[in-house]
Amino acid sequence: MWVRFWGTRGSIPTPGPHTLRYGGNTTCVEVRTEAGELFILDIGSGACGLGASLMASSPPSQQGHILVSHLHWDHIQGLPFFAPLYAPDGLWNIYAPKPLEGTAREAFAIQMSPPFFPITLDQLTARLHFHDLQEGTFQIGGATVTTRSLNHPGPTLGYRIEADGVALVYACDHEPCGNEVSTSCQILDPRDYAHAKFLADADLVIHDAQYNAGEFSLKRGWGHSVGEYVVELCRLGRVKHVVLTHHDPMRTDLIIDESLEQLRRGFADRIGLPRVSAAAEGAVINLGVAHGSG
Length: 294
Ligand SMILES: [Zn+2]
Ligand SMILES: [Zn+2]
What we know:
7-stranded mixed β-sheet
């Protein structure tokens, strides 16, 4: 299994000279299994570049599974600009949490209709199959996918994908459940331990970390994570590598560098730390195949 980041930003695309290294597109991650199955985790503005790349491959890659964490703009705004939807042979399964009212398909149909967008879902040439999800486990080809509700305004799901003997978790967007989020992050709510269990033993966790502990008191209720909290949960869960993503639009490349350094210093005396990095547009992580496991 390998992973490529096409969008790493939260809230709104943030192009410009100060976001060149970590990227300005909103969240979108390409995942490929060894069997060649394609999963796309969220379809923010990074999906525009991903779609162009899929269409430029030989032969064009026009089939796959789009796993949407929730229907906030920054996670879906690339859909109308995802070129494979306009390909005659396209076949896309789109999974999203069931909205409080109606279906995911109805929500996407509103997104792609006048006056918001000139082309409607029905005018797309690709075949689309929508799946309303709740918490559970299901199979997509050779991969086992488990969903878990995240602490965010409106129905939101994290995805755990297990294939090729490795496990990947994508958890975006999610706020700590407990009231105490300090730089040491040693006091956790029982609900946070349940979230840690969802991340546990993953080879790679890609997690919202829009804020740091110092910023959190002013941002509580906005539905986002804190770097210190994410690293501690991944440490407790023996995660191998955690990639922090959904960078705040105000975070420049330099601020992200400093936040990473601050996190590493803050956890320097802890044992069992995961590898910690920040998601960067264009970065590829190869998780390989775990031999001897199912
Ligand atoms: Zn978001
Ligand atoms: Zn959101």
